[in-house]
Structure formats: C-alpha cells, structure tokens
Amino acid sequence: MIIHLRRINPLEFRSPNRSPLTLFSTLLQNPSPPPKTQTQNPTETLTKPQLKALVLTQFSHGKFSNLVSNVLALPNVLLTACQNLTTSQPNIALNSLDSQSLLNSVSRRFDIEEMGRQLCENRFDIEACCVTMMPSRMKGESLVLPNLKLKVLIEAIRMVLEIVYDERFVTFSYGGRVGMGRHTAIRYLKNSVENPSWWFSVTFDRERFDDRHVNKLCLFIEEKIKDGSLIGYIKRLFECEVVGIELGGCYLGRGFPQESGLCSILINIYFNGFDKEIQDMRLQKNQENPKFKSEQLVWMSGLFYKPVKMYVVRYLDEILVITSGSKMLTMDFKNWVLKYLEGRLDLRVDKMMTAIHSAVSENISFLGMELQAVPPSVLHPPMTEKAIRARKKYLRQKEVRALEFKNARERNRKILGMKILQHVFKKLKQSDGFKFDFQIENEVREIFKNWTDEVVQDFLGSLKERWEWHRMLTAGDFLSLRHIRDQLPQDLVDAYDKFQEQVDKYLSPVQARKALEKEEKRVEEEEERKYAKSTVEDLTRLCMKVDAPIELVRKAVKMAGFTNNMGRPRPIKLLIALEDTDIIKWYAGIGRRWLDFFCCCHNFKNVKTVVTYHLRFSCILTLAEKHESTKREAIKHYTKDLKLSDFKGNEEVYFPTEREVKMMGDQNLSDPRPVDGALSLALIRLASDEPSCSCISHFCDRMDTVYYRVRLLQNRLNVNPSVEDKWVPGMGAIHESLNQKCLPLCSHHINDLYMGNITLQDIDCTAFVDVD
Known about the structure:
The chain is globular. The chain is of the alpha+beta class and about 775 residues long. About 30% of the residues are buried. It has a 5-stranded mixed sheet with strand order 8-13-14-9-15. The chain has a 3-stranded antiparallel sheet with strand order 3-2-25, with no helix packed on it. α20 packs parallel to α22 (about 605-625), α21 packs across α27 and α22 packs across α23 (about 630-640). A hairpin with a 5-residue loop joins β19 (about 645) and β20. It is built from 27 helices and 25 strands.
C-alpha cells in the first residue's frame, strides 16, 4: 500500500489547505537559532549525588529557595533531564563519559542555554510548547501533550522535587519512587501483614484536579519550597492541561501518553500529609500493643496473644487499609480516613465502593491483583499421598542408580584385579619357586608406572597378603569338614564355633531390620510433629494470598481477539500486514508483560497457561493465516518456540519458550507496567514512497525510519473503556486521540515498543505524521 503524507498545522488540525510531508512538531514552527560556539568546556551531565548536592545548597532556614534560577536553569541540569528522557539506542551509550554526543543531539532541536535563560528570567512560553491532539471521531475528546522541549522542563522539575521529597515520604508510599514499585508493595503485604481480620480499599470518584486542588497542592509544596517561579511553572502546566491528574481512573503508572512524568511525584506530595497522620496513628497503636517473640505468644493458660495492628499501603491513588482488630476499630479508622480525605484534601470518595470486608471470607482487589487472608497450609499445602508415593519412587530410583554405579565401579575394579592376579600367577608358575620376590614387585610397578607410589605400595601389600592366604587355604574351608574337625584340638574347634556365632549375630538381617524400623519410627514422629505444628499455625495464624484475576485475564484475551467464543486460540487478521518478526514481537511483548506483572501471584501457573497456550498458538495461527498454510506447517517452520533466523542464519527467539516459562517465578522486586498499553495498541507498518524522516523517539537521530499507524483496541471494537460491561474492569486504555496517527520509528525503537521495553511516554507523540 502506497500512502501520501502531508503536513498539518499544529494549531488547526482540520484545515483544508495542507502542504507536503513534514513532521508535526511545534519545534519546527519556531526553530531555535543554531547553537552558539562555546569557548568554555562542553556541558556535561550530572550524577545523582552531584545533583543532590546542588539542590541541598539551596536549603536554608528549613526551606529550599531559588531552585529555578540556581538549579533548574543550569544547562547541566537540563542536559541531565535530557539524558533521563533518552531511550536506549543501538551501539550508543549516552552517559556522563560521552555527554558531548547527547549535547549535539539536543542542540539540533533547541538551544539548551537559551532555554535556561528563559527559565531564569521567567519568560519560558509553556503554551507554545503544548500540542492539542484532535480525536479521530467527531465526538471524541482532545488531548494536550507537551513537545520534547517541554518534556525536558517537566523532567527537570520532577528530578528536583524527587530530591526534595523522596526521603521525606513514609515507608508505605509506593509508586513514582526508585525501588518502591508494585512488586515491592506486594512483597510487603505477603511478608509483613499478620492475622488480618478486616480491610477496605479507598475508591475515589473519577475527578480531575481543578483549581482548588492545584492551589492546595501548591500550598503543600510551599511548606518546603520557597520559590514563586517554580510554583508558577507548576500552575501554568495545570492551566495548559499538559499536566493533569485524574483520581479514580485507570491510567496512572501504566506508561500511557496522557500521563505526565510529574503526576506520580505530585500525587505523593498531595497525599504526604495524609500518610504522615496514618504513620503517627500506626506508631501509637504499636506502642499500645507491643510485639512479643514467637516463643512468648503461647501463654501457660493455652491462650494465644494477637496484638492489634494497622497496615496501610498506598500506591499513587490506590489506598488499602488492613486491621487485625475488631470491626468497630476498623469502622472508626475508616470514618477518620474519609473525613480527612474529603475535608483536608477536598477529594470525593465513593462510599459505596469503600466498604469494609472480611479478610478471611472475602477477597479484595488491589494493584490489579486479588488479596485474601488464608491459613499457611493454603500457601504451602502438605504433599498429597500421590505426591508422597511419587517422591518415594524417585528416591528409590535414585538409590538404585547409585547402587548400580557403585556395583559397576566395583566390578571394573574386580576385573582389573583379576587381570593383575592372573599375570602375577602366570609369572610365578614360570619361575622356579612359589614366593613373592622382588622380580614380581618390579613387574607390577612397571605395569602401574603411571600410578602414585602410595597407591602402588598399598596394592602390593594387599597382593602379598592375598598370596599368603591363597597358599595356606588352597585346600578349601577345612574347618567345616568333619574328618578335619575330628583331627583338631577341641579348644580350637570351640573357638571357631564361637567366632562363627558372633559373625552370624552381627551380620544377620535382624540388626538391619531393627535399624530400618527405628528410622521409620523417627520419620513418622517427625511427620506427626510437623502436622501438629501446621495444625496449630492454621488455627492461630493468617497469611496473605495474592492471586491474579484470572477471569479478567481470560476476558481480556477474548476481547483482544486471541481466542474465540469457545475459548480456543484464533488468528488476528489485523496483524497479517506486519512482518513475521513484528508479529512475534507483538505477541512476545504482551506475553512477557503478563508474566512479569503476575509473577508474584499464587496462581501464577494459570497465567503461564494463558501465555503458553492461548497467546503462543494464536501467534502460530496468525503466521499460518498470513502465509496461507496450516497450523502444522507453521509449527514445523517456526517450531513451538517461534524461532526466527536473521540474514546471517542465526536463530532469534523473542517469545518466551516453554522451558523459560516453567522456570519463571517470584524472584525479583520491580515495578512492571501492566499489559494494558501493549494489549490495546497495534502498530501497523505502512509502505510509503516519501523520504524518511528522523525517529521521533527522544533524541534519536536515526533517519532510517518506517511509518507505523496506531490502531487502538477500543476504536477497533467501537467500545467505550469507561463502560465496565463492555470493557475489562481495571484495564486502562490509551487516549483515543492517538488512533490512526502515524509515527516514524527506527528499527531499534519499534522493536523496544513491541517488546514492551519502552512505551508511548518514551516517544514524542506530538511529532506524528498525518496520512491520507
């Protein structure tokens, strides 16, 4: 398909008069003058300790001041913000050692020193750096996005606010912080929450931050920062709608383009006062209910002591409150929470959804997962009889294999020894006498000349001893013959009989049987002790079980077209226009995101089944549909692991293999993004005879780009994501204004976008290309 590209006015998207192909970017409207020749040293990026030291120099009398003029406006700080926005590029590592290459890339787009002067003189035009994205349908909502220059300012503000506030946030505040992601919050719930009895999650009505919320947020910032310019920039960002916070939505922390990089840190600042009040209440409750050691929990009367505890976890606008006390205590705490949020923070809470639930009999949804309090035996169930029999069979087989190996080793030694003895006896028969002389010893040493002297000496000693016994007992076992016993003294015969009795006593099977019975009794007592301990723990202790919402996952799989109404894999015909590699990468990106997100869940094996079966065979069927072949032929060509060969003949595997999926589990702490952005986005490659342009990924200078059209899931299905009956509950969606837009991307960044390494937040969506 040949497409024709044309330029559109960034302020009037529907103007009938249009020019030939150009990139849609406000940077091209008012191009900055070429960078001036600098006589000083080139600007270098700052490390995090250097930036922190620079910010701390502005701290005096309990507040930070002059952050814009003395920190934000510095070219080093702005260049560091550019480095944070820069995505990974092939064969290029943009770090502090080669910041000159980064500076050259930035200078081709705007003058960083001029931008610093504009910030310092408070004449930076934010409105000119905003782009309004019009929707593809008439009744759709528009979206205001920042261009790359404004993104640099937003990232610089975020860096400064992070240094000022990150160490002042409480420990249960997650999201938008380094090392404090979703999996860290889930790990805290699983390891720290003990004996939960009641809980509730705070649900907000869908509401965007308006002027009163922004003014209150600025008042909170002014408690620590005394800088009118910084407060003014934040207010102007909200006024231009380039930064917007909507509580109760499903887009925060998901990598959607409608989410600004400032949202996370600003939400944490807004809730910081609430978090500290909760922290003080928790400390007071812990002092009233001290914690005892495990051996002190059981009293002499047989009662078990369970201290009253309060647990709170907040991830951006999601708040979970857990108590181990009475329901009245939980109700009082809930009333206080609602009063604070609605009174002090002026937020609207959905009181119907913010209901108290039993932690034992009801599960609750939090961070896209389902939580429930269960006994420890549910998380670590005892082995079934079938599993025990299988384990015993495996141990027996292991013992048999070890015994066979031992016997084989002994047999080989015996064969080698017999060969040596035959050789020695042959030499002895050929000699004049039947004595073990030095000639035989020398011949043995010659045979085993590669062995050590110690081993040869031991062997010779054993050989001499065996030869003496052989010479004395060649007549056989003479003491067992009657006519021999009659000729021997009676004392010698009695001593031999006593010796034989002792041998039978200590080498008979009775001793082995008694030892075996003793070992079986010990194992049985150990199992009874473990059973008693597990029974007591089940009656006195509750743990947190985290499950993936498998029904919602299956609904998402069906809605995206991976399966038919019968739940069987089916091809997606929209992807047939892509290359084979892009098709597999698209499936691989969705599968890996699902596996990374739900790897901490108890029912992770169900998610593995969805990825291993539904996604894998849907990809195989899509490839078969594209090449007009059968499923068997596609499996024969690509294998079940979906292997590909590059132009050099090397095999490449993007989709997780079956063995790799089996080995996955809860191993690392991370903040994985949900699958929403990859599942609801399809990038279709277009053919064009127009000259290629620069890649729109942040500060990527590659010109070998390809145009990709954005196809959103909600537009293809013609559904409204806000209606839960037609959409998956809790699943977000990319803003509809990006539908049908064309993005020029290089091969490296389209690969990262397919695989989920980057999102639409990591590219300049305002530099799209309009296509007829």
